[in-house]
Amino acid sequence: MGDVALVIHLVIAALITASGPLQLMPKLRVRFPRFHRWNGRIYLSIAVITSVVGSYMVWTRPIVGDLAQHIGTTSNAVVIVLCAFFTLRHALAGQFAIHRRWHCVFIWRSVAYGSLESHSCFL
User: Fold this and answer.
1) Is the pTM of this model over 0.90?
2) Which of 59, 53, 74 is nearest to 4 (CA)?
3) For the chain, how many helices (H) and strands (E)?
4) Tens of pLDDT along 51-85?
5) Are the C-beta atoms of 73 and 54 separated by less than 8 Å?
6) What is the pLDDT of residues 24-41, one digit of tens each?
7) Is 25 helix (H, G, I), strand (E, B) or coil?
8) DSSP 69-108
9) Which residue, 49, 35, 39, 42, is CA-closest to 5?
């Protein structure tokens, strides 16, 4: 199961890195709202799945890192899931200004932090 989790985590992380920034482009959001909504749904689902799989992976596979890194990675996963929840909640409630603020935090946590975390293995 560990190797499957690794493959799922890496493939999905690549999809997040590609699709996340598209959500922040105002012209794309305005011209193609349907694309924005579907890309957002897919992005949100992928980010939550990746967070859960990544947390599973750090606790079940012998990978680089110690207890502190495992706790940090798991804490980040919890924050990503919470940001996803609040991003979706405010979008569904029509509170788009708040939705955008939560989404910016969500994008940063799932793309930027994930990239830093991946590269820290090579430092």
Assistant:
1) no
2) 53
3) 6, 0
4) 888 888 888 877 667 888 888 888 888 888 888 89
5) yes
6) 888 998 999 999 999 999
7) coil
8) HHHHHHHHHHHHHHHHHHHHHHHHTT-HHHHHHHHHHHHI
9) 49
